[in-house]
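Thread amino acids onto this structure.
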């Protein structure tokens, strides 16, 4: 956990109207710390972790998967009954499993600045500088710094600079560091059933399966949930001698129903923009709150 440990809520800022406030306690941490903690817990349960290994490909028969990896200059082939692809948006496991699947990506950028700004530290702040639902950036405090995050930050630089100025921060300040990540975009393929995030005894979870909430673009919650489903499916398959994909896709149905609903809701938000900023801000608040209920 990192200061302020828990957020008290989320605020949505639209031009010319009062912010929409959602009271919702949310734990806050650095992703690297969460990953480290989960790895330690896994090791305590007897999991063997092999670091600095590159996945090259896999093949599978009815009862066996063969995974090719490389460490340094040495290739190795591993034999296993089950594989979980938890390797993110640009999943190599997914590419190996479904080589003809076409995936489009967007990029999310994160900039870290020292200090704080004149805004509630215990809230997650979304800014919509234009009265449309998908052009946005967020600001959040973590410890002794604050972050600016979003897709297309370069195109919003003038609006970001004006926001920082209004909040008492010099926009010419250089970030301490910045990074980014890919966001897969194949919702339609997933929710239509044209793509299934499993085949045989190979299961995809989290970003690798495009299990990202369409409105908030949050992925940690769905990744953890799908990881639990995958573990349960493998346990069932090992006990009953069946394919893990069958159990996984069966239990995945309710999660896909949620994604379908949120995807439809995100499309409705685009129509709300035509009704004016006040109506859009209220609709966005309701839609955003729906995603929080899922986690």
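Threaded sequence (295 positions):
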């Amino acid at each position: 956990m990192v200061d302020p440990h828990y957020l008290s809520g989320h605020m949505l800022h639209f031009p010319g109207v009062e912010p929409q406030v959602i009271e919702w306690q949310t734990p806050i941490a650095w992703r690297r710390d969460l990953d480290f903690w989960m790895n330690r817990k896994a090791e305590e349960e007897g999991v063997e972790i092999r670091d600095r290994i590159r996945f090259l490909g896999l093949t599978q028969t009815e009862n066996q998967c063969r995974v090719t990896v490389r460490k340094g200059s040495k290739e190795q082939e591993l034999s296993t009954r089950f594989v979980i692809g938890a390797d993110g948006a640009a999943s190599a496991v997914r590419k190996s499993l479904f080589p003809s699947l076409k995936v489009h990506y967007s990029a999310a950028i994160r900039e870290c600045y020292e200090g704080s700004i004149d805004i509630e530290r215990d809230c997650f702040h979304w800014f919509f500088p234009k009265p449309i639902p998908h052009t946005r950036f967020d600001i959040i405090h973590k410890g002794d710094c604050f972050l600016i995050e979003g897709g297309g930050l370069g195109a919003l630089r003038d609006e970001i600079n004006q926001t920082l100025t209004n909040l008492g921060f010099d926009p010419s300040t250089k970030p301490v560091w910045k990074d980014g990540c890919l966001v897969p975009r194949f919702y339609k393929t997933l929710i239509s059933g044209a793509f299934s995030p499993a085949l045989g005894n190979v299961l995809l979870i989290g970003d690798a399966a495009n299990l990202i909430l369409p409105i908030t673009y949050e992925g940690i919650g769905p990744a953890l949930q799908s990881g639990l489903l995958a573990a349960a499916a493998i346990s069932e398959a090992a006990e009953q001698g069946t394919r893990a994909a069958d159990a996984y896709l069966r239990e995945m149905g309710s999660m896909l129903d949620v994604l379908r609903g949120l995807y439809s809701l995100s499309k409705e938000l685009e129509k709300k923009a035509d009704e004016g900023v006040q109506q859009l801000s209220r609709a966005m608040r309701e839609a955003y709150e729906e995603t929080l209920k899922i986690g």
